[in-house]
Amino acid sequence: MSDDLLVACGLRKAYGSRVAVQEVSLVLRPGEVLGLLGPNGAGKSTTVGIISGLTVPDAGSVTLSGGVTLASDPMAYKRRIGLVPQDIALYEDLPARMNVELFGALYGLAPDVLKRRAAEVLAMVGLADRARDKPATFSGGMKRRLNIACALVHDPDILLLDEPTAGVDPHSRNAIFDNLEALKRAGKALVYTTHYMEEAERLADHLVIVDHGRVVASGTQAQLFARLPAVQRLRVEIDGEPDEVALQGLPDVTRSGQRLEIAVADVGHDTSALLAALAQRGVAVRGLATARATLEDVFLALTGRQLRD
Ligand SMILES: Nc1ncnc2c1ncn2[C@@H]1O[C@H](COP(=O)(O)OP(=O)(O)OP(=O)(O)O)[C@@H](O)[C@H]1O
């Protein structure tokens, strides 16, 4: 569609006999956060590498709005994309501001623009007061934020973030999320790769779930949750060890030790029906909690495996 910002189609990349990515297609719309979710080794970094122009695909294409491709206009393509790589890429012994300016210079920004933009992006990531300090003196989270500033200096439409919270403490993780939410409000489009489903749930409008190099599902969160038999689960702690016969006939129950997990469509109605059924079977209940399904459950339902080991 003409208002798509980025369309990746049929991406494939193999390293020798190992196929890292195959038939990966995705669409990014203006102002959208696209979460690229999958376990380690699923092909997320390779996909982001191809989109950024750093990795050459064996097949497939990436086209930006206006028909811009890396082949048709490399500079225009690169000016519109910012990359925050998984491995922090900074000059540890140069002041933070100089790091940002060096990245900007790569895009040919004029010196006055460079100075203004460096100050703007450092303020944006909350590092204005540390502009003269060297990254060598920064925490892991501050380095991540400086990396984000470097990726934003040339004011790209699209920001690619490859696991930007890896190795970051919870406080810095929240600061990074605040930055990303502000960027989203400012109309930037983000591709956010992670294997933390709770991060994807918090930030992403649209999700592409990858596994073994392939897209296994994509859609909004609501669309993905709709693929589960039920979005709510009941957790029931029971007393003793009821025999399996007592539990027979209860709908969709998973049992581990003294905990039962039951998918329910309507918590209000189904809880009382379930408690009545358990009482009738002589099963004593010690505790009860409800839990909403997560993207982890979606991944499990799609692949039969956990997202994280
Ligand atoms: N340069 C490379 N040479 C050889 N194999 C590679 C290379 N880059 C990636 N791979 C392989 O391709 C597959 C996909 O890797 P990729 O880094 O894209 O996954 P990922 O989803 O980003 O995982 P992670 O979360 O661990 O970074 C893996 O099996 C990986 O070992």
UniProtKB/TrEMBL annotation:
Return the Pfam families for the record: ABC_tran (PF00005), DrrA1-3_C (PF13732)
The question of whether Transport is a record keyword is answered with yes
SUPFAM superfamilies in alphabetical order: P-loop containing nucleoside triphosphate hydrolases
What stretches pass through the bilayer?
Answer: none
Query: For this protein, what is any one GO molecular function term?
Result: ATP binding
The answer to whether the entry has keyword ATP-binding is yes
Which keywords fit this entry according to its UniProt record?
A: ATP-binding, Cell membrane, Membrane, Nucleotide-binding, Transport
Q: Which InterPro entries match?
A: AAA+_ATPase, ABC_transporter-like_ATP-bd, ABC_transporter-like_CS, DrrA1/2-like_C, P-loop_NTPase
Annotated ABC transporter domain residues: 6-237
SMART domains this protein is in? AAA
What PROSITE patterns does the entry give?
Answer: ABC_TRANSPORTER_1 (PS00211), ABC_TRANSPORTER_2 (PS50893)
Q: Extract the PANTHER family matched here.
A: LINEARMYCIN RESISTANCE ATP-BINDING PROTEIN LNRL
Q: What is this protein called?
A: ATP-binding cassette domain-containing protein
Q: What is the lineage of its organism?
A: Bacteria, Pseudomonadati, Pseudomonadota, Betaproteobacteria, Burkholderiales
